From TrEMBL:
One of its GO terms (molecular function) is hydrolase activity, acting on carbon-nitrogen (but not peptide) bonds, in linear amides. This is CN hydrolase domain-containing protein. PANTHER family: DEAMINATED GLUTATHIONE AMIDASE, NITRILASE-RELATED. Residues 1-260 form the CN hydrolase domain. Pfam families: CN_hydrolase (PF00795). It comes from the Eukaryota. Coiled coil: none annotated.
Length: 287
């Protein structure tokens, strides 16, 4: 994707029609699917509310193609003019927004051999409230921050965005508190971190949670200053890769079956949900 909203809409529309023709029930787009800025902070200039024209366009596409959408990393307008929210939005096949999650972990990193990133300079820092530990999903009150899971035609989805992937406790909560069966990880990993860690981290989150993972990834050189690693993957609950684009820089779709009976089978044969000893990480963090 690039810093051109109209061109990105056209690309997404083409991919959506291709996915619908292939019989997909859910199509997952990567982080920053609608816009990739040239400079840090450019995205703030295009940020809109979830009922704005950009999101309304994607909702219309979902309704017209009768398909659910995972819109990862949408530039939602923030609480002040200098910041946005990096928001993962789920749209159903009628074009209705049924859930949204604002990214918790922000990418403030000096990448070895790369550049310095400071996502917090233009993105609001969102912290989960303690009551996020209960299974709450679709019915959030205004201003209430939450770890989010939502039911869909392919199972119960656990929502996250990119850098969240490095924080396993979040995915533990999605599995063991929110009963997720499929974890969604839209991302725009850097080439340096992607080569080193992307697939390893995804498979680790799968094995720890016994969930499917769908990881839609930005790929290739967006502009002179930014490049993403790519490598879109679908991984089953045993850690086996069941879907991958032909090469990590491809723009296209990959389709795989989500077999919830296989989720149940893996969990029955290795019953970690019964054997685990829950640790209150909130309490541990305060000691």
């Amino acid at each position: 994707m690039a810093s051109n909203l109209a061109a990105n809409m056209a690309t997404c529309s083409h991919l959506l029609k291709e996915a619908a023709s292939a019989g997909a029930k859910l199509l997952c787009f990567p982080e920053a699917f609608s816009y990739v800025g040239t400079m840090d902070g450019d995205s703030v200039l295009v940020a809109e509310p979830l009922d704005g024209p950009i999101m309304n366009h994607y909702c219309s596409l979902a309704r017209e193609s009768d398909i659910w959408l995972s819109l990862g990393g949408f530039q939602e307008i923030g609480s002040d003019p200098q910041h946005l929210c990096n928001t993962h939005v789920i749209v159903d096949d009628t074009g209705k927004i049924i859930s949204s999650y604002r990214k918790i972990h922000l990418f403030d990193v000096d990448v070895p051999g790369g550049r310095v990133y400071k996502e917090s300079s233009f993105t609001e820092s969102v912290l989960p409230q303690r009551n996020s530990l209960s299974r709450k999903s679709e019915g959030k009150g205004e201003g209430e921050l939450d770890i989010v899971a939502v039911d869909s035609p392919i199972g119960r989805l656990g929502l996250s965005v990119c850098y969240d992937l490095r924080f396993p406790e979040m995915y533990q909560l999605l599995r063991f508190q929110h009963e997720a069966q499929v974890l969604l990880v839209p991302a725009a990993f850097t080439t340096v971190t992607g080569e080193a860690h992307w697939e390893i981290l995804l498979r680790a989150r799968v094995i720890e949670t016994q969930c499917y993972v769908i990881a839609a990834a930005q790929a290739g050189k967006h502009n002179d200053k930014r490049e993403s690693y790519g490598n879109t993957l679908i991984i089953d609950p045993w850690g086996t890769i069941v879907g991958r684009l032909p090469d990590r820089l491809s723009t296209g779709i990959v389709v795989a079956d989500i077999d919830l009976s296989f989720v149940d089978s893996v969990r029955e044969k290795m019953p970690i949900a019964k054997q685990r000893k829950p640790i209150d990480f909130w309490k541990a963090a305060s000691l």
